[in-house]
Design brief:
The chain is α/β, with parallel strands linked by helices. The protein has 14 helices and 13 strands. Helix 2 packs antiparallel against helix 10 and helix 4 packs parallel to helix 5. Mean pLDDT is 94; it is low at 389-401.
Length: 401
């Protein structure tokens, strides 16, 4: 038989799905895939339920319900001071992954170079390759995730069409600094490149800091699209409601790509998300405070067990070094060991890189109930104390005290 599309033929199943399947098979606490274990606010879900029953349930406008597009525009003004035309500069999509596909397929032609900062959320490379783009990677690495300015400058050329920026960044939990964003903006302007900004964790930034979109930097308003996600903002990841904000000249071809992918998104969910975006500040601050408390709870427990816990400035994730814990020769081995023998699922950070990836770090997801976090920590403590860890690890020293 003739071969199928080589971009997708034989591609590995996403690491999140792989670890989730293993977690189910071993009755493990799943701290691998990034989704909360509680649903979002009752009032938002009630709006969706009422809209479902009241209707209409037919095709909404391709660009999205006017009330949601207006809510997205108002949110941009409220949080970032951006003046957005809801009629020509907002597109509603069936999740942020679809939004990424729309943007890449609309902006990238065969042979165009796309600058990517790895570690990468796993859909980026297949989408760029399917569009015929040429990935040009710049790497940040643990433990400090510093962006090498010279490496970034060298990644840009006259062939650069798009920079794809994930900020706040999954899986690193990094928030790009003002200086890093200013450099990125300068390079995009200098090389006449578009910026596609995956900002789904925009409202999950911790320790009193706030997100600043690349679009707000000088000269970037007309060359940047930013992608948001109701799933992350409202802890409703199964709803798959995303939104793209950008200049009309960019959004027009992006909307054309959208019409041939999903065309539209469930109208009752759109109506509920519009309601949610108008919630007062206490909702958004409460969300971050709740997640910070869970982050700190998990970080403290993991550190006491001997993991090297890296700072988490945003997102749902903690990255931990595993040196000295005797969990295997790599992060993949460690995750396999923990899910099969300790009953806790994590994700190897090397899965987000290409060749020569760092292999000494794993990622835990902390957007879980406190009881789930405590159960995972208890299982890890039991496993490590049973003698599987290096006798010089912190947990062994603590047990000897």
């Amino acid at each position: 038989m003739k071969p199928t599309n080589p971009v997708y033929t034989g591609i590995d199943t996403t690491v999140f799905e792989t670890m989730s399947r293993l977690a189910m098979a071993h009755d493990a606490v799943n701290l691998g895939q990034g989704f909360p274990d509680v649903d979002g606010p009752d009032d938002i879900r009630k709006v969706a339920a009422t809209a479902l029953m009241d209707g209409p349930n037919q095709y909404p406008p391709m660009l999205g319900l006017p009330e949601l597009r207006e809510a997205v525009a108002a949110s941009n003004k409220r949080f970032y001071g951006l003046d957005i035309d809801p009629h020509s500069e907002v597109l509603v999509t069936s999740g942020a992954t679809e939004a990424l596909a729309d943007c890449i397929f609309a902006l990238v032609a065969p042979g165009d170079e796309v600058v990517l900062i790895e570690p990468l959320y796993d859909c980026y490379l297949p989408l760029v390759k399917q569009a015929g783009g040429i990935p040009v990677r710049v790497r940040v690495t643990p433990p400090d995730w510093t962006l090498d300015a010279d490496a970034l400058r060298n990644a840009f050329s006259d062939k650069t069409k798009v920079l794809l920026l994930n900020n706040p960044m999954n899986p690193t939990a990094k928030v790009f600094s003002e200086a890093e964003l200013r450099l990125i903006a300068d390079l995009c302007r200098r090389h006449d490149a578009y910026a596609v900004c995956d900002e789904v964790y925009e409202h999950l930034v911790f320790d009193g800091h706030s997100h600043r979109p690349l679009m707000t930097f000088e000269g970037m308003r007309e060359r940047t699209v930013r992608i948001g996600s109701a799933g992350k903002t409202f802890s409703l990841t199964g709803w798959k409601v995303g939104y793209v904000t950008g200049p009309a000249l960019m959004l027009d071809p992006i909307a054309k790509a959208h019409q041939w992918l999903t065309f539209t998104t469930a109208p009752n969910l759109q109506r509920a998300v519009a309601y949610g975006l108008a919630k007062d500040d206490s909702y958004f601050t409460g969300l971050t405070q709740d997640l910070m408390a869970k982050r700190d709870r998990m970080a403290k427990g993991l550190a006491e067990l001997g993991f090297s816990v890296l700072p988490s400035a945003a997102t749902y994730f903690l990255t931990c070094g595993i040196e000295g814990l005797d969990l295997g020769s790599s992060d993949v081995d460690a995750c396999q060991t923990l899910v099969r023998e300790a009953g806790v699922a994590a994700v190897p950070v090397s899965a987000f890189y290409g060749d020569d990836a760092p292999t000494g770090y794993i990622r835990f997801c902390f957007c879980k109930k406190e009881a789930v976090i405590d159960e995972a920590l208890a299982r890890l403590a039991s496993f490590l104390s049973a003698g599987h860890a290096n006798p010089h690890s912190l947990v062994q020293r603590k047990l000897a005290e």
